[in-house]
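Give me the fold.
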Amino acid sequence: MPPQLTLQHVRQYFPDFTEPALQQEIIENGKVHSFLEGAVIMDYGSYVRMLPLIISGTIKISRLGPDGSELFLYYLTRGDSCTMTFTCCMSDKPSEIRAVAQEPTIVLGLPQQKLDEWMMKYKSWKNFVLQAYDNRMTEMIRTIDQISFSRLDQRLMQYIHKAAVINDEAVVYTSHQSIADDLNVSREAISRLLKSLEKQGYVKLGRNKISILKTLV
């Protein structure tokens, strides 16, 4: 899409924003940003001056653990926003997450100073923020449950399934090391489990590629 935001773009990508006045404010204050695959959109310790809304692409959100290891939290896709970013914006505190583009990604950046004002003025904006909080909380609870109660093979299958759903195809393009980093385990453990899944006919392994042959979850 062009860098200049129009009313048509707002209605197309964010149909939940129903008030004409809000749509106009988004056009006047929003800024379109493009990121290449692998770009770090937000990093640990950085101050957040805008709230990103995803127009296209996929963003992976991770958090740094006490031991310095990185824990994958959730993905953001079209129409999503990161509530942890919203919290950092509103409280003017440094980011506790890292956001990385998983593919070429376009976001709409909304300025920090407008976020609280819109909560008071526009019902559809308030509903959007509250729904985003609910969605992200559900994702994080699911992640905690998987870490606490699921076996590693179940976590791995759920991870591959989720990645395939986001890609909208039965192929996941990633490395064993990348999966291991996201699940906070060793690469050897992931490679061993993937080979086991391949022997059972669930997947076919290639170089940085996992083809799903049978339903995993």
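The chain has two domains: 7-148, 151-212.
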